[in-house]
Amino acid sequence: MSQQGLVLPTPSMQNQMHELAKTLPPPRKQNTACDACRARKVKCQRLPGQEKCQHCTSKNYPCTHFVQQATSEKKRNSATSRRPRAGSSASNGTPVSPLAENGNQIPPYLATHLPLPVQYGFYPQITLSTPTREVLSYLFSPPESEIVDPNPFSPRMKSPYAAWGEFAMKLEHDVFRSEFALDLVEIYFQIVHSRLPLLDPAQFRNRLRLHLSSTPPSEEPLHPALVATVIAWGTKFSEHPLLKADRNCHKGQSLLSKMIIDRTRDLAEALKVHRLPTHDHVVIGLLIEPLQSQVPNDPSAFHCFWLTAATRHLLDLQINHKSVTSTISDPEARGTMIFAWWMTCICDAFSSVYYRRKPILDDDDYDIDFYTAADPVNVAGAPSPREQLEFLGYYRAAHSLARTARQMSRQLWRPITDSDGIPLQYLRRFGTDLRTWRDKYLARVGVPKTYDGWDFVTTVSCFASDAQYHVMWIVLFTAMDDFGIKELNEAERMGTPPGGNSGGIPIVDNRHYLDEVARKIGEEAVNGALRIAALVSVLTSNEYLKLDPAVMEYSCIAAGQLLAKMGRPEVSSCISGLEQYSHSYEEAGDAAHDIRKIYETVRTTGNTELTHMGAYAKHIPSMPTVTSDPIPPEHFNVDVDGDQVMGKSEPSSPF
């Protein structure tokens, strides 16, 4: 015992205490992050001598610690056994901030001064009744991904909007945000609505202007995710000085547009657009799908996610039943839902055949009639894009071709086809179906020989329909090149001539017939690729691809890849078109780069980059070269029925 009467621990006791200490959990580190960093879940770093952390300094946010203060206050109250303050919003009607933790609330007069991304956190707490002005504040808030520059004298520190160009700082002002949003909405209705007529332009404009006025009406505003989607589309095609400055800073790409698209998807997910079947959610899903990247494996997008959600919503709402659609009393709502069904039905079929997946819908999943418009000549005023396209027969033609696409998807993209090859009977069936469609529809909805220049809706629609037919041959040819023909694959594996029957034709005596089928599909595919290249050349020369919401993108890529693999110089038209596409779809520029590399490799080696179809490609008759210069529309030398492409006559077919 020491002089103070204390017992000193022996060495054995010290060792035991040390071992016990190692088993205890480490003391909890106090969370001193500011409100902005806490909401964004990023590390809060403050340099010595600075009042704000680096994140708040770069964003020009107030570096507040309301949540930390509330938590500390609760701990003090608990330690002194005092009752917590009454702060329930149920008693006095005071709103509780989303940043409040454990039931504590931030003083409302302070919470209202926080930036919206701070108030709302990662998923914005926007509801269907949130004022449209606040939705715009969220959409146009500064970029979160801007790199923090520790240099306080850096020009980037002048404005949190610096990453979006020299004019982006104007987005700090509420009046400019409203004017900018209205401008983007007009761009949407001028360009996108003509291809995807899912909204009532007059109704949307009027409601938006009313809710952006100084005295907004008492009724519910437009769906926040719908407003965001329309604005996001506008940023893709607008030539507003703010967006032009943004593109000039980033090699033609708009960082603002990318950010708005990301926030639109986040907002749609937060409002459960993909989960709750409503009419608005159907429209939003269909508009978001082509808004994003069209590359299936792009991690920044959710390929076919929104299309699938819209399809499920339509089925849940039973829009596929004639008996249900007839009960929708509002004519505009009924017409919108019926048109949404046909658009979904067609998109599901073509996306399945393009991107090698099974379609969701079957031919017998619906019994509703087509949207039928009156004769535009007899309708007072100019016809709507929906009425105009229906009157010209585009929807009926597209639906007919979509049924063939649906059957192709179900047979071509099966695991057994991948391993065994494509049976000859399916090749004959698809060839016959495509030629039947050509004879019935292509003269009515494709580009005629004498194209004199029509209005924008008719022009882009007939070009897209024409390309949509021809790209089907390219899809079929590419599948044959990847998988081969089943009967030939079996013969090669067995090392003997193929035996048995295929579609009622004894292959052992008809090897020449099988080769003829493969060669004809190859001719049709090259024919289609050349046709698409010519169409793309016209659209590029008129700068229409800058204004296309991805309708022609897949056809351009597929045609370019085939022409590049065969070393055809006409591929230059597809490359130029994709480079113009990259103005609004960045992945199109990457596709143009890849196609150019394939073409240069083939031209250098002298060998086509084909597998199963390589031998047949050598027997495809040489076709005249399509000039790489823009082709004036009046110089098209293509028969209406597709039997000629730049002067090439079509031989007899085995289909």
SSE layout and pairing:
Elements: H1 11-23, H2 35-40, H3 54-59, H4 66-79, H5 89-92, H6 108-111, H7 116-120, H8 132-139, H9 174-192, H10 201-211, H11 224-237, H12 241-249, H13 255-270, H14 279-288, H15 305-316, H16 322-325, H17 331-354, H18 385-391, H19 394-412, H20 415-420, H21 424-445, H22 456-483, H23 486-494, E1 501-502, E2 505-506, H24 511-541, H25 553-565, H26 571-581, H27 586-605, H28 614-617
Antiparallel strand pairs: 1-2
Keywords: Metal-binding, Nucleus
Domain Zn(2)-C6 fungal-type: 33-65
Region (Disordered): 71-104
Walk me through the structure.
The protein contains 28 helices and 2 strands. The longest helix has 31 residues, at 511-541. Helix 14 (279-288) runs parallel beside helix 17, helix 19 (394-412) runs antiparallel to helix 21 (424-445) and helix 26 packs antiparallel against helix 27. A hairpin with a 2-residue loop joins strand 1 and strand 2. The protein has helices at 11-23, 35-40, 54-59, 66-79, 89-92, 108-111, 116-120, 132-139, 174-192, 201-211, 224-237, 241-249, 255-270, 279-288, 305-316, 322-325, 331-354, 385-391, 394-412, 415-420, 424-445, 456-483, 486-494, 511-541, 553-565, 571-581, 586-605, 614-617, and strands at 501-502, 505-506. By secondary structure, the protein is mainly α. Among the domains are: 31-72 and 103-120, no CATH class; 414-622. It is globular. The protein has a two-stranded antiparallel ribbon.
